[in-house]
Design the sequence.
């Protein structure tokens, strides 16, 4: 998976910058989960694009990241982050070093998410939080992505007129494993996390989601990008 992102690191940034309203709708959601978040580790920080936006436009500092793609990690370092090249499964989250472990857009790219969530629980201090943000499998985007993944292309009659003009690169879609919100809730609670909170964005159909920037709303029944925040109590 890291190799694929190495090859298409520039395409990742280009897609988000070409879909500015989607990017900022998602950034608004991420920022909403990080009030009083303390020291934050971004697990799967990619190119550091979101972290740069959060710092410059929301005043939220995320200095440390973990990223399996060396190409992505190099871009993030150029943006000022300290990045360890490792998968979430391999990475050391420390023991009480961070108050918040942020997984923005990365749960679907983590094979053994259950073990990573358990490791996060062990690493966080009392009162610490984990934030899982991703496209839910049951959402419009999730179903659209899984259809494209099954077909191996966006260019298919079954998808004609369904996906946005500039869809997420198929190379990233093919290596993802989207999970339902219910699955994430179960993983978090089984690991010991409590006080789960939900926020969502991208509430329009994927065809129209880049037409306007959204502010997040509570819950998870309408959005195609959902944040699940849980605390170690």
Sequence:
């Amino acid at each position: 998976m890291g190799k694929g992102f190495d090859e298409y690191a520039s395409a990742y940034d280009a897609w988000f910058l070409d879909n500015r309203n989607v990017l900022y709708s998602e950034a608004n959601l991420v920022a909403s989960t990080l009030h009083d978040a303390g020291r934050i580790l971004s697990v799967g920080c990619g190119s550091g694009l979101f972290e740069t936006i959060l710092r410059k436009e929301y005043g939220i500092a995320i200095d440390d990241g973990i990223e399996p793609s060396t190409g992505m990690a190099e871009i993030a370092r150029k943006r000022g982050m300290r990045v360890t090249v490792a998968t979430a499964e391999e990475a050391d989250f420390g023991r009480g070093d961070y108050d918040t472990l942020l997984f923005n857009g990365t749960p679907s790219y983590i094979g053994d998410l259950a073990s990573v969530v358990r490791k996060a629980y062990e690493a966080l201090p009392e009162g610490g939080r984990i934030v899982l943000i991703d496209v839910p499998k049951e959402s419009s985007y999730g179903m659209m992505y899984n259809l494209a993944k099954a077909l191996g292309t966006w260019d298919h009659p079954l998808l004609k007129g369904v996906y946005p003009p500039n869809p997420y690169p198929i190379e990233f879609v093919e290596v993802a494993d989207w999970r339902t919100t219910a699955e994430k809730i179960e993983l978090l609670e089984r690991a010991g996390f409590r006080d789960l909170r939900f926020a969502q964005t991208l509430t329009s159909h994927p065809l129209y989601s880049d037409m306007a920037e959204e502010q997040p709303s509570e819950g998870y029944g309408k959005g195609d990008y959902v944040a699940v925040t849980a605390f170690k109590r």
